[in-house]
Write a structure and sequence with these properties.
Farnesyl Diphosphate Synthase, 2 domains, alpha/beta, 8 strands, 59% helix, Rossmann fold
């Protein structure tokens, strides 16, 4: 007859959930209670347990928002059905332990840090033995759990299973394993949104429409790279601050940070390193190039934290960020910056930003059959977005033709400047195509990203490039 399994103590951070409750709490403090960060930092002088309690007091992450380890939960559910005693023992604050226990509904008890004692390592082992007895099993995921593994009769290993197994004493039985692979390069590429680096090709726009300046090419390439690095870093920061909201979204909950595939700590470290590295590297550019990158970073973060929830302001800021890319590349050139080009850029990308908002709102409105609200927009805003977007798109095309006729026709770099007029119908077709797809609910993503994958859009883009070269021949 098989001996009954001992009571099971389960860790929280990195084990039951694919995240760290303290890190998520700190993000909530920065997002929701930034004025209290100084008080939270001061509490560190009283120890880790006091620090955790102060974080929870100012911004309590809810249990429902955590990314749970579904496979481990299924195992715990099966063990519970056999009548096995299961307890939650975590270094997180007691308030979080109680919240998680109530949400999961599998635990006979929940023990966490009490504001004085940090329930980790040997302190946690002593607490487990006091509540469950000396004969217990433990589910954990890290090196800090080794003192507990050594005192357990059996263990459930989560995360770096092979490394944890190598550190176990010979007498410890491994009940079950739930391995988690280290984030792959492909996963990091998803988190960094590398496909959005294509938007930064706008830094080359002014150079493409100007006489050749070989000496500036290296600076433009560096600007392109650094702007991409900053964009990826701000995407990470945006995802960190949107964890709870993303986890409620049917598609966004699979993002690397929201799902826990990449830890919050790693996200913070990588984003910080990327921003610091990009700004440091930008010092080799002329000062106005560095200023443009800094402005891009500040405006992007302001958009993520403030402007994206403000109707009409959000699309204006998005258009400004695209125009800033054009401006950043133009200021590196020795030729004067054309106000017509900047005006075209602002209107054109204002129209694209409105397409994005219209498509999101229209799709949600169709799915819910009315009454939807998204980022401050409601279904009543659909006609406003449609007319504003079309007007902006058509105005941009007119301004672009004025730019070509006024600024480009007189340039000696074009042997046949009249050929540039052929760009106008191409822009008209593309603009109307995007709106046609959006109105019919077939625009499911950022229009710029869509264009990079849409064969017709790519063909129209190639046509513009051919027209530009034909005009120079």
């Amino acid at each position: 007859m098989t001996a009954p399994l001992p009571p099971l103590a389960v860790d929280l951070d990195g084990t039951l959930i694919r995240s760290d409750s303290l890190h998520e709490g700190l993000i909530n403090v920065v997002k929701l209670r930034p004025r209290h960060m100084l008080a939270v930092a001061r509490s560190l002088k009283s120890g880790k347990a006091a620090f955790k309690r102060e974080v929870v007091r100012h911004a309590h992450p809810t249990a429902a928002s955590f990314p749970y380890n579904a496979d481990l939960l299924a195992y715990l559910t099966a063990q519970r059905q056999t009548g096995r005693t299961i307890g939650l023992f975590t270094a997180a604050d007691q308030a979080i332990a109680d919240d998680v226990a109530a949400h999961v509904g599998l635990f006979d008890m929940a023990c966490g840090s009490d504001g004085v004692t940090n329930l980790s390592g040997a302190a946690k082992a002593a607490c487990i033995e006091a509540r469950l007895g000396a004969d217990f099993a433990y589910a954990g995921d890290g090196d800090v759990d080794q003192p507990i593994f050594a005192r357990a009769r059996s263990v459930v290993l989560v995360g770096p299973v092979d490394r944890l197994r190598d550190g176990l004493p010979p007498h410890v039985l491994v009940e079950a394993t739930f391995p988690a692979a280290e984030p792959s390069l492909r996963l990091w590429a998803r988190a960094l949104r590398l496909q959005h680096w294509a938007k930064n090709t706008l830094v080359f726009l002014a150079a493409l429409l100007s006489p050749p300046h070989p000496a500036v090419i290296a600076q433009l390439v560096l600007l392109w790279v650094l702007m991409g690095v900053l964009a990826s870093a701000t995407y990470l920061i945006n995802d960190l601050f949107d964890l709870a909201a993303d986890r409620k979204h049917p598609r966004k909950r699979h993002r690397p940070l929201a799902s826990g595939a990449i830890s919050v700590r790693h996200g913070i470290v990588v984003a910080t390193a990327m921003i610091a590295g990009a700004l440091l590297a930008s010092l080799v550019l002329p000062w106005f190039g560095t200023a443009a990158l800094l402005a891009y970073l500040v405006i992007t973060l302001a958009y993520s934290f403030l402007f994206k929830q403000m109707p009409m302001v959000d699309v204006t800021v998005l258009a400004g960020l695209f125009t800033l890319r054009v401006l950043a590349g133009a200021v590196l050139l020795p030729t004067p910056i054309s106000p017509w080009l900047l005006t075209f850029s602002m209107l054109f990308f204002f129209g694209l930003a409105i397409i994005k908002r219209y498509a999101e709102l229209n799709r949600l409105n169709r799915a819910s059959q009315g009454g939807v609200q998204a980022r401050g927009y409601t279904e009543q805003d659909l006609p406003i977005l449609l007319t504003s977007g079309l007007a902006s798109g058509f105005s941009a095309i007119v301004i672009f033709m004025v730019y070509l006729i006024n600024d480009q026709y007189p340039r000696t770099i074009y042997a046949h400047p009249g050929a540039l007029w052929a760009i106008m119908p191409v822009l008209l077709i593309w603009t109307l195509r995007l709106w046609h797809l959006a109105v019919h609910g077939r625009m499911s993503e950022d229009p710029v990203v869509f264009a990079l994958k849409d064969r017709i859009s790519l063909a129209l883009g190639a046509a513009v490039v051919i027209i530009l070269f034909a005009a120079r021949l």
